[in-house]
Design brief:
10 helices, five-stranded mixed β-sheet, about 900 residues, about 10% helix, mainly beta, Immunoglobulin-like, 7 domains
Length: about 900
């Protein structure tokens, strides 16, 4: 085994310095000489214990591993984590360094030895140093003696030494001082066990305390064994009542077996009822021969349960035994003396006029109580028919009765083994019974520990009330609480009877006799906090400058108080937040003066007395245009579209008219029905016949065409001269008309036509006036159609004929004439034509009067062969009304 282990040597005085140095040197040499050493360094003394305030000196020895390149000058010291000053160092030789610490006051500290080489510190070894005091003289020696079992003694050691201290308890026989028994302990108690604990009255007791700093002993204190005897707890055999004797319990018990013989004892009975914490005591004396005890407890409460425990003491001892294990028992019962506390909740009538009446009652309030209630008897009957009485038995404190709409009287009694309680009577009113409102106002308020309800009544003779309260969300009628109040309009209860943040319905009922009047009800929170959640906003469809914000009420279980108001916060994108506050009964609000085409964020805060809670934010965007803007924009567009639609329909219906006006057809002269009239009458006659037959097969829906006689270029000069003669000849010609629809073509018989329609004069015939309302599509062949004559250069013969007609008695009526001035697009000289329409209502001879009109055609209307021609459009312009 290596020798270079840690040693501790406390240095107290200078006289011991030399011996310590010698020991140190020897240990040091032996450490150096041991080639098998595995430690790098040693510190001694190891784990020293010194007196507080003395001087501490320690040595650090380098091992073989360090001596080649380090020496004692490289050693540094630390106390806990603080470097010790260099003036406290001492270099003993190249491998040993010591440290001296004066006035060491640490109760416990660590001293560490390091080497410092090339600027680095390396821990070599450390030790723990304790400081303390030598022990004081022990005192207050006391002992407890359990007969033939144990002798235990305790003492006090004085001040704390802070060092390991050993105690020795000496028991000495006073008559024989050399007879000594001892026991060792590291605590302030020590015991002798049987048979090393004999009974004797001639012992004294002494305690010695010692540690590394010294020792101290107490005086030997004589203690008589009979004075310190302590019993084991007695055992209760029974606690019971005696039948027929009220307010009494009998207690019996057994004494412990190991007690000093021939010594009397006293036992103490402790008892209390379970409704009270006050204790009562009864002492009972026993002689040395009695092994059991008995006692009657009198003056107890009826029907009350009691707790009983016992302890005993020797008459010569000063020490009581511990309390026995307790037992409980109840005194004799008596009939309940108080009425039950009865209340009811009446539900509305069901089918067939049946209603549910919830009856509930509380345990009896009598104190002390009469005993254990076995059950309750419920009786009820209609108020107007007492003979029809019904009864129920219930062991519970609630029941449901199904009653009809009549008034009922209900009574409840509690019973036990001794009898019944007085009846508690309550009247259930009929369904059609109305009671007056006696309670005028009710208010609640809170104090630190209580809830107070106050009310005012209009009838001071009412002196009894019932205060009922229950949670608003409570649906079970049996979950309600109530309390009767007499001779007061003020009621208070502990706040613990109410839950915080819950809404309660509180009602006050006036009671007079067995009748209950109409209640006055309010709602109240005993304590509020801010709502658990905020309202959810619904923006609907926003407008241009406004939006309607809607929200729903917060559920009752999350309000945590009465909602006082709602605040709507809204903020435009990149704008300032605004808000509006409304009352608690408002669930929608119109936000106005918003910016158009802007995104907003909105949320709603619900507030109560304790604070407010925000709902989830929601975004919406206002419209760019509102309804008025849309109407203002859409109305002109719609009107324009309707106008264009009407114009389009008109164009469809009148497309032929518009086509002729806007895009007139240019006829091909080669296809024209106008022909050159030869001088040969027979040729004219054959032509007219062919034209007549052709006219019968042509559809004249759009135009009426009459074959014209166009003058040749050679005859153009004599047109005006021959006009009168031609017109006069035409008056004698018999005409025949062929009608196709509303269009007519007039033609002449054979050679007679040649006389009227000479090559020098064209004629244009128009449609018959549709206002004449012809009964048939065909007109008589003899009827002369109206003739449209060219207005320019009228012949003098025609003018004279018109004058003759005006002078005639059979003048045409003005209403039967219509006159149109038409522009002929084929006349470059803008020659106007006039249309004369002859009514069918004129006299027959007037219709047969010849009318003539002549005009001179410009040269461009003559064909290249010298023939004149008449276009289709010229005839179309002369159409009838």
């Amino acid at each position: 085994m290596p020798v270079n282990h840690i040693h501790f040597l406390p240095i107290v005085t200078e006289k011991e310095m030399f011996s310590c140095l010698v020991v140190t040197f020897v240990l040091f040499c032996s450490s150096i000489a041991d080639e098998n050493s595995i430690r790098d360094a040693d510190i001694f003394p190891s784990s020293p214990e010194i007196e507080r305030g003395s001087t501490l000196k320690l040595f650090c020895v380098l091992g073989k591993h360090y001596t080649s390149h380090r020496n004692a000058s490289h050693i540094i010291w630390k106390l806990n984590h603080e470097l010790i000053a260099q003036e406290n160092y001492n270099i003993v030789n190249e491998t040993v360094s010591s440290i001296t610490i004066h006035n060491f006051t640490y109760s416990k500290a660590h001293v560490k030895c390091f080497t410092k080489y090339l600027g680095k510190e390396q821990l070599l070894v450390h030790t723990e140093v304790k400081s303390g005091f030598p022990p004081d003289t022990p005192g207050n020696i006391s002992c407890t003696y359990y007969f033939e079992a144990e002798l235990n003694c305790t003492w006090t050691s004085g001040r704390e030494t802070n060092l390991m201290t050993n105690y020795t308890l000496y028991r000495k026989m006073m008559t024989s001082p050399n007879v000594v028994a001892s026991c060792q302990s590291k605590t302030e108690s020590c015991s002798f066990y049987y048979p090393n604990a004999p009974y004797s009255s001639a012992f004294c007791f002494q305690v010695k305390a010692e540690n590394v700093l010294g020792e101290a002993s107490s005086d030997c204190v004589p203690i008589p064994m009979e004075k310190i005897e302590k019993f084991e707890p007695p055992e209760i055999l029974s606690v019971k009542k005696i039948t027929g004797i009220k307010q009494l319990l009998t207690v019996t018990w057994k004494m412990p077996e190991k007690i000093i013989p021939s010594q009397d004892s006293t036992c103490q009975i402790q008892y209390r009822n379970l409704y009270s914490n006050s204790l009562e005591f009864v002492n009972v004396s026993l002689n040395s021969q009695e092994k059991t005890g008995s006692c009657n407890l009198t003056g107890l409460w009826d029907s009350t349960e009691y707790f009983v425990a016992i302890r005993c003491i020797s008459d010569q001892s000063v020490l009581w035994s511990e309390w026995s294990r307790g037992k409980t028992a109840s005194t004799e019962e008596k009939a309940p003396s108080e009425k039950v506390d009865l209340w009811r909740v009446i539900e509305s009538s069901h089918s067939a006029g049946i209603r549910s009446v919830h009856l509930m009652w509380k345990p009896l309030n009598s104190f002390p109580p009469s005993g254990r209630i076995l059950g309750y008897k419920i009786q009820y009957f209609p108020e107007k028919n007492a003979a029809f009485k019904m009864a129920n038995i219930s062991t519970d404190r609630k029941i449901i009765l199904l009653l009809n709409e009549e008034a009922y009287i209900i009574s409840i009694t509690a019973y036990n083994s001794a009898g019944n309680s007085p009846e508690a009577i309550l009247r259930i009113p009929s369904t059609d019974e109305k009671t007056s409102q006696i309670i005028e106002t009710v208010r609640t308020f809170r104090t630190n520990e209580e809830v107070v309800v106050e009310w005012t009544a209009s009838e001071p003779e009412v002196t009894k009330y019932v205060v009922e309260w229950y949670e608003e969300m409570e649906m079970d009628p049996f979950g309600r609480s109530w309390q009767y109040v007499s001779n007061s309009t003020h009621w208070k209860t502990n706040r613990k009877n109410f839950k915080p943040f819950i809404c309660y319905n509180i009602s006050v009922y006036p009671v007079y006799g067995n009748k209950v009047a109409a209640p006055y009800s309010i709602q109240a929170y005993i304590q509020e906090k801010q709502p658990s959640e905020g309202p959810v906003a619904d923006t609907g469809i926003p407008g241009k400058n406004e939006v309607i914000i809607k929200w729903k009420e917060i559920s009752k279980d999350k309000r945590n108080g009465f909602i006082t108001n709602y605040t709507i916060f809204y903020k435009p994108e990149d704008g300032k937040e605004l808000n509006e506050t409304v009352n608690s009964d408002v669930l929608q609000y119109r936000l106005k003066s918003l910016q158009a085409n802007t995104q907003y964020t909105v949320y709603i805060m619900a507030s109560n007395e304790a604070g407010g809670t925000n709902g989830e934010p929601k975004t919406f965007k206002t419209l760019k245009f509102n309804k008025e803007d849309v109407i203002f924009i859409a109305l002109p567009i719609g009107l324009s579209m309707l106008f264009l639609l009407g114009l389009w329909i008109t164009c469809i219906l009148k497309k032929h008219t518009f086509k002729k006006v806007c895009w007139p057809d240019i006829p091909n002269p080669a296809e024209s029905i106008a022909v050159e009239w030869p001088l040969d009458a027979s040729m004219n006659n054959s032509f007219l016949k062919g034209a007549s037959s052709e006219a019968k097969t042509i559809d004249f829906e759009d135009i009426s065409v009459l074959e014209h006689c166009f003058p040749e270029e050679s005859q153009e000069g004599s047109l005006l001269m021959n006009c009168e003669n031609h017109v006069s000849e035409c008056t004698d010609i018999n005409t025949k008309g062929t009608i196709n629809g509303d269009k007519k073509i007039l033609y002449n018989k054979e050679n007679e036509v040649a006389k009227c329609f000479s090559p020098s004069m064209p004629y244009i015939i128009t449609d018959q006036d549709i206002r004449s309302q012809m009964p048939s599509a065909l007109t008589p062949a003899k009827e002369i159609q109206p003739m449209e004559m060219l207005e320019d250069d009228l012949c003098e013969s025609q003018q004279s004929a018109i004058k003759n007609e005006e002078n005639d008695n059979e003048v045409l009526k003005l209403d039967d004439f219509s006159e149109k001035a038409l522009f002929n697009p084929y006349l470059k000289n803008s020659v106007k034509t006039r249309e004369f329409l002859i009514s069918e209502n004129l006299p027959e001879h007037s219709k047969t009067e010849p009318k003539s009109q002549s005009t001179v055609l410009p040269p461009f209307q003559q064909n290249i062969s010298g023939q004149s021609y008449v276009t289709l459009d010229m005839f179309g312009l002369a159409s009838a009304h």
